[in-house]
Amino acid sequence: MRILFLLSLLPFFSACSSLGVEPWERDLLARDSMQLVPDVMDNYFDEHIYFSKEASTGGQAVGGGGCGCN
Amino acid sequence: MQLKKISGQMSLAACALLQVASPVARAAAADNNWQVDSAVLLYSESDGRVSVFEPALQATRTINEDEQIDVSVVFDALTGATPNGAHATESTQTFTSASGNRSYTANPGETPLDSSFQDIRLAGSVNYRYNLDRLSRLTWGANLSGESDYLSLGGSVNFEQDINQRNTTLMAGLALSQDTLLPSGGVPCSLTAMPLASENEDDVFQSAGNSDDKLTTDLMFGVTQVLNRKTLFQANYSYSQSTGYLNDPSKIVSVIDPATGLPASSGFFNTALTRNLPYVYENRPDSRTRQSLYSKIVRYLNEDVIHLSYRYYRDDWDITSHTLDLKYRYQMEGDFLQPHVRLYQQSAASFKQHDLQLGRDVDAATGEVLVDYASNDYRLAESQTVTLGLKYGKLLAANQQFSMRAEWMQQTIQEPGVSESEKTPGLDAIIVQFNYSIKF
User: Fold this and answer.
1) pLDDT digits over A5-64, tens only?
2) Are A55 and B284 in contact (CB under 8 A)?
3) Which residues of B25-49 are buried (b: 16+ CB within 10 A; e: fewer)?
4) Do B163 and B136 touch, CB atoms closer than 8 A?
5) With the CA atoms of B252, B253, B259 and B260 taken in that order, what torsion angle do they form, in degrees rounded to the nearest 10?
6) What does the alpha-carbon distance between residue B141 and residue B69 come to, in Å, rounded to a whole number?
7) Per residue in B384-400, pLDDT tens?
8) Would the CB atoms of B298 and A36 count as touching at under 8 Å?
């Protein structure tokens, strides 16, 4: 899995000069469905559920409510 | 030369027309000053374990092109039963509830569940974001969460800087949280025996006080990169430090007599004489350092969108975990279907202990526990979670959207070397959620 993660970083560190778009090419990126967190509620509930059932937490953002469930 | 000039002017015009936002910022349309997201979560575990009813509301107000504020409120009602940490044995087991005046039992072969697990939680948060300049933003956040036995107060600040023609966004975040535990009946002394239930409060707990605290500091550094017109990539590194009372005050560990394989019943644990039950309250280290690497790719595929993320996590309790999450949004006209798969795997904490052995881990005469830390909380065990779900969303109008999702979650607990009859059972849970959003 760690190798998978490192592999996923590869496109980011290679060919840096060709990354990105011109300002007028952002039509698709501006869509709601293309946001990093397209639905805040789904994300909030998932974080809450898995925080209460598993040992791991975090990764996407800092801040947010605490809970006595774990 | 002339062509190049015209091309440059056209670029500027297109840029102005599109009012391009940063890749991470959700651009609010100029005529939508408000966005309200509402949702209700119904969560239900099999075998009469935990059920949750949780409505939530978030209102986001775009004050002007430089400022945005959001306010969230969540209500959380939770009932059911949860494993108390003791394991199944061949004998009937008796336990004392958190309040100390009520007892409950587990039949032979049954995993002991504390059925008094119920609570109501109310949480709220406010985030205020404003542009420092054309390319950078700051977000201040505050949150408060309260339960009958838990209070959490936190604050956060996030800084974002766009570079590379807004194709790259750098992020740094800091959050602090002060949590106070107020267990019913007081904070139990860790690694001391659970007393027999009694109407007389003096007979019950050797309380370590009415409350205890923990302080958590979170740091995060992240980068978001537009790879091309259809692909967005994010990578975050998180560091979190918690100190203070990190035990679960309701969790216990069985003390087993190796001669019988049953809960200890002699000497210090001769309950009829000493009122000591053969279970001790768990104890965890008073600090925890967590680190995680999180990466995500969002990819547009001919109207459909894929969200794929992976998180690698480790902490100094020796837990490592891997989380893979895939959502595929299948776009139809005006509505969409979104299958979801989540795979999670974690290793056990170094002090996860199935039980304590009389003589080896616990002094038979005095009841003194001879190990520093012990917990049999299943959430600190080696485990896997698989979640499969489907979401359906429909655009009700240009500014309104409804969606619902149903998911099935299965958690499997691994306890190497533990006999089948004593293992903590896994759980199945159903998640149903309804969302409604409106912009105006």
Assistant:
1) 555 555 555 545 578 999 999 999 999 999 999 999 999 999 999 999 999 998 998 877
2) no
3) bbbbeeeeeebebebbbebbbeeeb
4) no
5) 50
6) 10
7) 999 999 999 999 999 99
8) yes
Structure tokens at A17: 């000069």
Q: What is the ipTM of this complex?
A: 0.90
Task: Note whether B119 contacts A: Cβ–Cβ < 8 A.
Answer: yes
For B43, residues 6+ apart whose C-beta sits below 8 A from its C-beta are A49, B50, B51, B52, B54, B429, B430, B431, B432
Length of chain A counted residue by residue: 70
Neighbours of B293 (CB within 10 A): 18
Tokens of B195: 């007393």
CA B384, CA A55: separation in Å to the nearest integer?
Answer: 11
User: What is the spatial distance between Cα B119 and Cα B150, in angstroms, rounded to a whole number?
Assistant: 10
3-state secondary structure at position B328: strand
Window 56-95 of B, Cβ < 8 Å to A: 56, 58, 72, 74, 78
> In this structure, is the dihedral angle defined by the CA atoms of residues B96, B102, B108 and B114, taken in order, positive or negative?
negative
Domains and CATH numbers, chain B: 2-439 (2.40.160.40)
Q: Which two tokens stand for residue B61?
A: 């107000």
Distance CA B113, CA B117 (A): 9
Q: Mapping DSSP to helix (H, G, I), strand (E, B) and coil, where does residue B245 land?
A: coil
Q: Please give the Cα distance from B236 to B166 (Å, whole number).
A: 18
Radius of gyration over every alpha carbon of chain B, rounded to an integer in angstroms: 26
Of the pLDDT bands very low, low, confident and very high (cuts 50, 70, 90), residue B117 is confident
Interface of B with A in 132-151 (CB under 8 A): 141, 143-145, 147, 149-150
Largest CA distance in chain A: 47
